[in-house]
Every structure is written in C-alpha cells, then in structure tokens.
Design goal:
The complex is a heterodimer of chains A (267) and B (313).
Chain A lengths: L1 E2 L4 E5 L8 H11 L3 E5 L9 H10 L4 E5 L14 H15 L3 E4 L7 H16 L4 E5 L4 E3 L2 E3 L16 E4 L2 H5 L3 H8 L3 E6 L20 H10 L5 E4 L9 H18 L2 E2 L3
Parallel strand pairs in A: 2-3, 2-11, 3-4, 4-5, 5-6, 6-9, 9-10, 10-11
Antiparallel strand pairs in A: 1-12, 7-8
Chain B lengths: L3 E8 L3 E9 L7 E8 L14 H20 L4 E6 L1 H5 L3 H12 L4 E2 L2 H16 L6 E6 L4 E6 L6 E5 L3 H8 L7 H24 L5 E5 L1 H9 L14 E3 H13 L2 H4 L13 H15 L3 E4 L4 H15 L1
Parallel strand pairs in B: 1-4, 4-5, 6-9, 9-11
Antiparallel strand pairs in B: 1-2, 2-3, 6-7, 7-8, 10-11
Helix pairs in contact in B: 1-3, 4-11, 5-10, 6-10, 7-10, 8-10
Classes of the chains: A alpha/beta (267), B alpha/beta (313).
C-alpha cells in the first residue's frame, strides 16, 4: 500500500524555453500535468493575465503558480519597481485563481527593497489569500571566489518569511543539504521546484534523477508528511533539438515526480 | 574677482556633455546644470577610421544645442574639448574646422595623457592629501587612462586604446559575442596592459585605487553600490571578487538582456561587457582587490585647473 498526497504536479513554462508560453500549456496538457506555473518572462503572453486565462481555459490546465519576474533577465518586465512587480503578480494570481506567487530574494543592488523585504512581504501576505513563497537561491562563484548576490540572504533558513519554495537545482549550487532544508522548513514549505543539479557553480536545472540531489527522497518525505503544496517541474530543455526530445525530458520528469511522490502507508 | 558662470563642453565618444559651473575663488566645482546629448561617434566610423557625414552632422548639431543651453544659463566663458574619438579620426582636424566655422566653438583636442592628468587632479581634490599615493583608472569610450602619483600632478600617466566602445566595435561583433571572441579580447586587453605595467608596479603600491567613468560606475551599481539618485557623497566601491562572478554572466547575456540591469541604458548596454573585461584585467594585473568610485573626473579636472588660474590672476 502506498499513500499519495494531495500535492499537484505542475509544469513550469520555463521548462519549455525557448518555446513560448502557449506551447508550454499545450505540452503540459498533452503530457498529463495537473497544471502550469507561469514564469513571467519577456514573452508577452506570460505578462498578460487575460491571455493566460484564455490559454488555461483552452487547454483545461489550471494555473497553479505565478513566478514573479524577479530574475536577472526580467528586471524590467512589467515594471522596474520590485514592490509593484509583486503587486502585479498578486493581481495576476488572484485573477487566475493561482494559489501561489513565487518570489526570489532581492538582488544586492536592490538595497531599499532588501531592507524592507521581510516586513513588506509579511504585510502583503496579510492583504491577500495568495501565498508568496520565497525561493532558496545560492551564492555566486567564479575563479574560486564567492559573493553574496542576494539580500537579506540566499538561504531560506536565514529568512524569516512565512512561506517558501524549495528549488532542488539551487540547493545543488549552494551546496545545501536539501533533505535537511526540507525538514527544517517544515510547514513553511509551500512550493517545490523539482529539478536536479550536479553541484557545479552553474544553476543547471537537470531532469530529476540526473544530478546529485536527493530528489526522490525529498518527494517521499513530502508524501510521508501529507504535503499539499505544489511540485513544479522546472528543468532546462534549451539543448533539446526538437519538440520530441523536449517532451521526452518533460515526460521523464513528470514520471519521476509521480513515481516518487508516494509514501508507504503506515500500518 | 566675483563669481562667473563657466561652462565645460566635453565631446566624448558616447556623448556631448555640457557642464555649467558657478566659478569663483575657492569654489568647489559643483555643477549649476548639466546637459547631455547622445552622440555615439564610435558607430559613425568608416573602415578607414574617419567620422562619417552623419556623425559629423550629429556632432555639429549637438554642439549648437549645447551652446544654446549654455547661453541660456548666462555662461560667460566656455571651454570646449574633445577626447579620443576626434583625436584619432584621420578627418578629425577637418571636423574641428567645420565645428569652428558652423558654431564658432574652438574644440581643444586633449591627448590621452592630458586626460589622465586632469582626471587625476579631480580625483586628488576629491579625496585630498590623506588619500596618499593614488592610482586612478578611467575607462572611456575610446581609451583607458591610468595615472599614479603622490602629488596633484601624477608621476606616471598612460593612455591605452582599450575604451569600451572601441573594443566592442572592433572585437565583439556578436550579440551575445562568441566565447572565442571574448577569450581573444581578454587576451588582447591583458597583453596591452602587460606592456605598460612595469613602471606602475615600480612606482609603489597605491594607498588608494580609484576609478572614474560611467563604465566603472555601472559596474559598481550592478554589484551593489548605491544608485546615482543617492547623490555624490555616498561611498561606492567595486571589488575584484564581484567582477569575477559578473564577467562570465555578462558574457552570456545579449545586449537586450544587459539593458535589464540597473543603471544600464540601452545605449550603453552593448559596451558593458568589454568595459567589464578591461576593469577585471586592470584590477588583476595591478593587484587591486577594491576600487573606490570617484564622482569627479575629466570635466571637473578642467574646471579645477581653470579655477586655479582665476585664483592666480
């Protein structure tokens, strides 16, 4: 007997890059995901809640999370003001009935935002039913040096925020013990980015099982504790030469999630 | 004598910049106003290095509009000078004549060493004598200026053709550039620097390593220094460790992606990578862990030199 938790398995539109947001919805439906996480990106469709609503209806794919445009390459998407960005993400989530907004900790140059990040986020959390799940990041390294790129910290255990996203490619880069982080976060863990990494300085987002992270164990442990958040496949398929190759990686990731997100039932 | 309004007009590779200053004995050269026109002369070079007609027209019109602004501000005297873009174009002298004929402005063309000296003076005045032996670096559009010394006049100056605009145009054609081009540029920069390094290393370790120029300010900004909106008086630095982690990231980004970064305008985004490579190589070869950013540079140096003359008269 196994116990399968209520957690849904979603596809991040980022997993299909450089394919469009539209193609990502189509693939998610074809492959049998439970829903989609929209990475708000330079693709105009990803920035437009009405267009997203239409896609969600057309492919019968619920939108389970909005990833706010707080990446290095999306600093000017929607707006440059970080708080306005989060408000826009919240509005989009509310409009699309997505329970979660994924947020990165501020970059070091966003000094004021970083100073107010924890208190400001708590305030925004009070004003909405949407959960702001802050994602673990990593220090930046090169030529044997390491610098702090994020403030107040890349490490969720150093951040006093009520809800978090655990990314299993980022734990590989930061050299964190993913199982220990998963346990320490406890109920604060609201969202998971399923990926893998081999522990280089690069954020690899490998298909789960192809790197060194304890992806299967993390999923089992979540299942054992009845995790009801979302597991989102966020892998890099940029190298895929065609749609079949890309879909094969996505299908492998989905199968990995379904297979491992199960615990032995207590006897 | 009483106060007078002075203007400095600086024709660089990227911009024509007008600075209006209230000048009097002992005045600090803070601008009363500042006016900029984008020029990007580097993009108007023909294969033989001449500035093409469109570039020349843009230059004349930028100077004309700067003149109008300067007159509107009640300026009594204007010092107009040009740096590497006009210095190196074979048709530069002809252009100077045309500028004089059509605007009445006499553009003084500064040598690279003049640039380095005047920038050094501004940095010395900003940080004062307590800064000890100063090393000053400035990455322009066309050239890299280096100066070292314990006085107001630097003991050593150098000007190398390692400006961020020039290197981007000549050596980084792709967007994003290929890995091979980046590697080759890195090697070229280090070879050029290696040739002039010895006297600087022999001149004694600097007590204070200082960087001026937009390129260094942008690099300091993306690595966490306060934005320009926080004013001139806040401390801004750039560390070698930060550059080391940023250079590979910048190398992978397209121009449009670099323009997403804070403080990087679309007009400046193309040159940011070449500028970062020059900054990284210079810090590496001079053995510098941290640079302090100085908000004063060439224009302020020119004003300071001029104010010294007023005082002496």
């Amino acid at each position: 007997m196994v116990r399968v938790p209520g957690a849904k398995v979603a596809l991040s539109t980022a997993s299909c890059y450089p394919e469009t947001c539209t193609t990502a919805f189509e693939m998610a439906a074809d492959l049998g995901f439970d829903g989609v996480e929209v990475m708000v990106w330079t693709d105009p469709v990803s920035q437009d809640p009405d267009a997203l609503r239409a896609l969600s209806d057309r492919f019968a794919m619920p939108i389970l999370a909005i990833h706010a445009p707080c990446l290095l390459l999306t600093q000017r998407v929607w707006t440059t003001d970080p708080w306005t960005k989060l408000q826009r993400a919240r509005e989009a989530a509310e409009k699309l009935a997505a329970p979660t907004v994924v947020v990165h900790p501020p970059f070091r140059w966003q000094r004021e935002y970083a100073r107010e990040f924890v208190t400001g986020l708590a305030r925004m959390q009070d004003e909405s039913g949407v959960v702001f799940a802050v994602e673990n990041m990593f220090p930046w390294r090169a030529r044997g040096r390491e610098v702090a790129a994020y403030l107040p910290h890349w490490d969720l255990l150093e951040l006093d925020v009520p809800a978090t996203t655990l990314d299993l490619s980022h734990t590989a880069v930061s050299g964190s013990d993913a199982l220990a982080v998963c346990d320490a976060l406890g109920d604060r863990l609201a969202h998971v980015h399923l990926a893998d990494g081999a522990g280089s300085n690069k954020d690899e987002h490998l298909v789960p099982g192809r790197g060194s992270q304890p992806c299967a164990e993390v999923l089992e442990r979540l299942a054992a504790r009845g995790y009801a958040g979302c597991v989102v496949l966020e892998i890099n398929t940029r190298r895929a030469v065609n749609r079949d190759e890309r879909e094969a990686d996505l299908a492998e990731g989905l199968a990995f999630a379904r297979f491992n997100l199960a615990a032995e039932a207590a006897t | 004598m009483g106060a007078m309004r002075l203007a400095v007009l600086d024709v660089g590779s990227n911009t024509v910049h007008l600075l209006v200053v209230d000048a009097h004995r002992g005045a600090r050269p803070l601008p009363a106003s500042s006016y900029k026109s984008d020029l990007h002369l580097a993009e108007h070079l023909s294969d033989d290095g001449n500035i093409d007609d469109a570039g020349a027209d843009a230059l004349v019109s930028a100077i004309k509009s700067s003149l109008t602004v300067a007159e509107g501000q009640g300026t009594e005297d204007m010092m107009a000078f040009a740096t590497s873009a006009l210095r190196e174009a074979p048709n530069g002298p002809g252009l100077l004549e045309r500028v004089h004929r059509e605007t009445g402005v006499d553009l003084e063309v500064l040598t690279g060493r003049d640039e380095a000296r005047l920038t050094f003076l501004a940095v010395r005045r900003w940080f004062g004598w307590s800064a000890g032996r100063l090393l000053v670096l400035d990455i322009g559009g066309g050239s890299l200026e280096i100066a070292l010394g314990i006085d107001e006049e630097p003991a050593l100056t150098e000007s190398l053709p390692l400006g961020a605009g020039r290197l981007t145009r000549d050596r980084l054609p792709g967007d994003p550039p290929t890995k091979d081009d980046v590697k080759a540029l890195r090697k070229y920069i280090r070879t050029e620097l290696g040739r002039i390094l010895r006297p600087f290393r022999a001149g004694g370790a600097p007590d204070h390593a200082v960087a001026t120029s937009k390129t260094f300010r942008q690099l300091a900004r993306i690595t966490g220094s306060p934005p320009s909106s926080e004013g001139l008086m806040v401390a801004r630095t750039l560390s070698a460790a930060d550059l080391d982690v940023w250079v590979p990231r910048l190398a992978e980004m397209s121009t449009a992606q670099r323009a997403q970064l804070p403080g990087v305008s679309p007009a400046r985004a193309p040159q940011l990578l070449a500028g970062a490579l020059v900054a990284q190589a210079t810090m590496d070869l001079f053995g510098l862990e941290t640079l302090t950013i100085c908000p004063w540079a060439l224009r302020e140096g020119i004003i300071l030199r001029r104010l010294d003359w007023i005082e002496g008269s």
